[in-house]
Amino acid sequence: MSFRMIASDFAIDLGTSNILVYKKGEGLIASEPCFLLLDENNTKVLAIGEEAKAMLGKTHEKIHIVRPISNGVITDFNLTEALLNYFFKKVNGGFSFLQPRVVICVPSSITDIQARAVEDAALHAGSRDVILVDQTLAAAYGMDLSPDEPRGIFMLNLGAGISEASVVSLNGIISTKSIDKAGDYIDDEIVEFFRNKLGLEIGKNTAENVKKNLVSLKVSDKNNTMKVDGRDLETAMPKTVEVKSKDLVECVMPFANDICELIYEVLEKIPPEISSDVKKDGIFLTGGLTGLKGLSEYISDRTGLRVNISEDPLTDAIKGAGIILDNPDRFVKYRK
User: Fold this and answer.
1) Biggest CA pair distance of the chain
2) Which residues contact 209 (CB under 8 A, 6 or more apart)?
3) Which residues contact 312 (CB under 8 A, 6 or more apart)?
4) Rounded CA gap, 113 and 19, in Å?
5) Would you say 286 and 164 are in contact if contact means Cβ atoms under 8 Å apart?
């Protein structure tokens, strides 16, 4: 076992689908799915992260796969602690006399009780100090914006379990609203489409692959096709079907409209001075679902606002958490 006097501080973006880790002095060091493989009694963790997700839909009855975080919120304290322990050891293997400070990204809509659960899980996993940061605020830092200045920034965070629209200024949330529809919701809609319209049973991993590679709101993509493997519901035999992008629009259009309504609701609650900032700068889109083809253009057309996307929306929040970890005074100066 290795020994050190002081453990390295780090930051975690604790997402519903993926967990990203930033280590002070090294940058992004880990990005893994938020999955655990458990035994039949839920008492032993058999695999975590990529290894567990690779088994999704392929397990027998004596083992099963779970996600301890739903819609950005801890649903199982013990499993989340086990997950955090796994990443704590990745960052600081061995023993340290002084435990690390940890910055953790959480949804803006998280309750005090839910925030306390995240903090307790991190303390039990081995941190000496925990700084909870709004995921949206962290993403604003990660996009090289200036949320610590007196200027309104409209952030739209589209993740796996939750979609959240927030306006930030002076390191605080001016207005925010979220819905429990995001990437997982679209995956479920795709699964239902194949079941009800094509008589094909597909798994979540397949649905996610279809979402990433075929689903599009762009008219120019309507005739794009993809072959999808699954199980025929009538014969129970393996079957392959070919589907077009235009056929899957119904899986995503209601969600796209809900996002536009979410934006309108937040815009209605902000002061006029902030509205002028949003009018000038537009909406800043972040999160894993940002890559859904045609979504940003659809939002821009519906709202009349420019939509800005960073080079890597998946890492905006963890980059911002790293900035806060390196300079916590910048983050807390308006929050004391």
Assistant:
1) 64
2) none
3) none
4) 21
5) no
